[in-house]
Write a structure and sequence with these properties.
The complex is a heterodimer of chains A (about 325) and B (about 300).
Chain A lengths: L1 H5 L13 H6 L3 H5 L2 E2 L2 E2 L2 E7 L1 E4 L1 H6 L9 H10 L9 E4 L9 H6 L19 H15 L14 H7 L2 E6 L3 H8 L7 E2 L13 E6 L8 H11 L2 H8 L20 H8 L11 H17 L4 H15 L2
Parallel strand pairs in A: 5-6
Antiparallel strand pairs in A: 1-2, 3-8, 4-6, 4-7
Chain B lengths: L6 H32 L2 E2 L9 E2 L3 H8 L1 H32 L6 H13 L2 H11 L6 H9 L17 H25 L3 H9 L4 H12 L1 H16 L3 H7 L11 H11 L3 H30 L1
Antiparallel strand pairs in B: 1-2
Helix pairs in contact in B: 2-13, 3-7, 3-10, 4-7, 5-11, 7-10, 10-13, 12-13
The chains are: A alpha+beta (about 325), B mainly alpha (about 300).
Chain lengths: ~325, ~300
């Protein structure tokens, strides 16, 4: 978003799109914030998604655990105690990779932040105590073989591993329902909120899509009307029927929504967007590399994140 | 005696060439020159007129970038290993397939089949075979042959990742090298071998004094073409490393170019990388031709 806004490709919507302020009143704060750049909004949140905890009920019940972990402490404990039969390898938790999207829910839930609110510095944020604590927990899980080494590349994919019972827990998005319907029709997928961090609150990472109006269009007024229409409850419900989660908070719990949306919409109330900055891909890369270095044992989590903070600061110049 | 040049002969020739030339100019020459231009700018794709001229800065940036240097190293190592292997194994296969034997055509077809497989499909297949936790290769090495104690995480290691990529290219390319060598072998007159046999030369001597020298032009052709192909490797690298994983250490020059251009939207930088590769390939080809010609003389 901000990459294109920064290049001058998008029309500023606040102040130009009629009724803009009213439209954004009902949207979730996380998805809305992905449209913000340099003091203005350059798009409207079209659909959104987030990640929640998926837990394999069969494995949990076989281990004598009836409910998914509610706090991060429980999460770490469960990940390491989940039954391991001697003939097969099993992991309590698995992540899809080391790109930021993968550890982000845990990172945010434990109070981690990448930069300050004004996006001026990363020092004290991405390498702050909460961020380091989150990554330290993940590194410990990895070292103790509670988290699968697949995240380093070339291992069993999280969706397949979860359904086959190799991974007791994964964190993923609403698209898993469709994926499992096609690939593992007999698998019953169970969702739960991201466990709460030390201060008792949960969080996750925001994904989704924004609708924008391109600068240089000959039909700016019509395009804006279309964008505004896409955010009406009527249009959002139509998209919900094909699996695109609405960005309107008022539709949370609406009977027209597929039932599995509920846990995601609840999570969206606390989910946070990734840093809305044109150089976000490079920042993601810096955190990705830091995560790799700490998993490989080349650096401690604090050292790795300190280096990431320096690299991100350089991008914020 | 000079033949008079008839312009009436030239005209129909030009007319027949024209469609091909137009297509070449439109879809090859034009974009190539435009891309060269882009490489000297900090190119803005949304508003190209706002692009800033930066001279050779994109080129300097590439040459001093450690990720680019690593990509060159990977591409270079990959090219050397695969070309040498394909030449040696290809020649071996060609010599075998040159004998009269039952089912010879069947064998020739079988060896050529990998050449016509889809790069995408076989890259994915090799990716599955070398999967760190559930792959066939680890299963054979660990559970059957018992030569490794733990699973090898092939794609998690920046150097081991190159193993499946190199093996794939060798497997896929032996057949092509063999067929080209076969064609070269067919042209060698049988009488030479007969004469040599009469003089008491064994198979090895025949190979050394007849086959190898007379395969000269074929060998030159193969080396040049295989090296160009190797330096331009893209599909297996992109699919198996997902763009340089881990940590941008497994890029080939072209996957890095792709990421710079379409991932970071830095068209100028990507164009510079592609032209650095072009110049390098050109120079290498010239050196190869020169060396080979000297050897033949």
């Amino acid at each position: 978003m901000s990459e294109f806004a920064n290049q001058g490709a998008l029309v500023q919507l606040d102040g130009n799109l009629p009724d803009f302020d009213n439209i954004i009143k009902d949207t979730f704060p996380g998805p809305l914030s992905t449209n913000y750049w340099n003091g203005h909004y350059y798009g409207l949140p079209l659909d959104t998604n987030t990640q929640v905890l998926l837990w394999n009920k069969d494995i949990f019940e076989a281990a004598g655990i009836s409910a998914p972990p509610a706090t991060m402490e429980e999460f770490a404990a469960v990940a390491c105690t989940i039954n391991r039969s001697p003939s097969e390898t099993r992991y309590g938790y698995a992540q899809g990779g080391t790109y930021f999207w993968a550890p982000a829910p845990i990172f945010y839930a434990m109070g981690g932040k990448v930069t300050d609110e004004e996006i001026t510095t990363a020092t004290g944020y991405v390498n702050g105590p909460e961020s380091v604590a989150a990554f330290t927990m993940l590194k410990d899980l990895y070292d103790q073989s509670c988290m699968s080494p697949n995240l380093l590349g070339g291992g069993i994919a999280t969706d397949a591993g979860h359904a086959e019972g190799t991974y007791a827990m994964i964190i993923d998005g609403p698209w898993m329902v469709d994926i499992y319907k096609n690939n593992y029709p007999d698998f019953e997928v169970n969702f739960a909120p991201i466990p709460t961090g030390p201060d008792g609150t949960t969080s996750s990472v925001v994904g989704g899509e924004d609708v924008v109006v391109l600068e240089g269009t000959a039909n700016q007024e019509a395009a804006m009307k279309w964008a505004a229409y896409l955010l009406t409850p009527e249009a959002q419900k139509m998209m919900a029927s094909v699996g695109q989660m609405p960005t309107l908070a008022s539709l949370a719990g609406d009977p027209a929504m597929p039932p599995y949306f509920a846990v995601f919409q609840e999570q969206l109330k606390t989910a946070q967007a990734r840093v809305p900055h044109p150089k976000w891909s490079d920042m993601d890369n810096a955190i990705n590399n830091a995560y790799q270095r700490m998993l490989n044992g080349d650096q401690t989590p604090q050292e790795a994140l300190d280096q990431a903070a320096e690299e991100i600061n350089a991008l914020l110049q | 005696m000079h033949t008079k040049r008839h312009y009436s002969d030239l005209l129909p020739a030009m007319i027949f060439l024209l469609p091909g030339l137009v297509l070449f100019a439109l879809f090859f020459l034009g974009p190539m020159l435009y891309s060269l231009r882009i490489s000297f700018f900090d190119w803005k794709i949304v508003h190209p007129d706002q692009s800033v001229f930066v001279g050779f800065r994109n080129y300097q940036r590439a040459l001093s970038d450690s990720i680019f240097q690593r990509a060159i190293l990977n591409t270079f190592a990959y090219t050397v290993i695969t070309v040498v292997a394909k030449m040696i194994l290809g020649l071996g296969v060609a010599l075998l397939l040159n004998q009269r034997m039952p089912g010879r055509t069947l064998f020739r077809v079988a060896y050529y089949l990998p050449v016509i497989t889809s790069w995408v499909i076989v890259s994915l297949l090799f990716e599955y075979m070398f999967n760190g936790q559930a792959g066939l290769v680890n299963y054979i090495l660990k559970d059957i042959l018992r030569v490794i104690p733990k699973d090898v995480l092939w794609f998690a290691d920046p150097i081991l990742t190159l193993v499946p990529i190199i093996l794939l290219d060798i497997w896929k390319g032996i057949g092509w090298a063999a067929i080209i060598f076969l064609a070269g072998l067919q042209v060698i007159p049988a009488e030479l071998y007969e004469a040599a046999r009469v003089d008491g030369a064994n198979s090895l001597a025949q190979l050394r004094y007849i086959t190898w020298p007379l395969l000269g032009p074929t060998t030159v052709f193969l080396v040049v073409v295989l090296v160009i192909g190797g330096l331009n490797a893209y599909v297996p690298f992109q699919l198996m490393t997902n763009g340089g994983d881990p940590m941008d250490l497994t890029h080939s020059v072209l996957t890095l170019m792709y990421e710079a251009t379409f991932g970071r939207i830095d068209f100028g930088y990507g164009a510079a990388i592609s032209y650095l590769l072009t110049v390098f390939v050109f120079i290498v080809s010239l050196i190869e031709l020169r060396l080979m010609r000297q050897q033949a003389a």
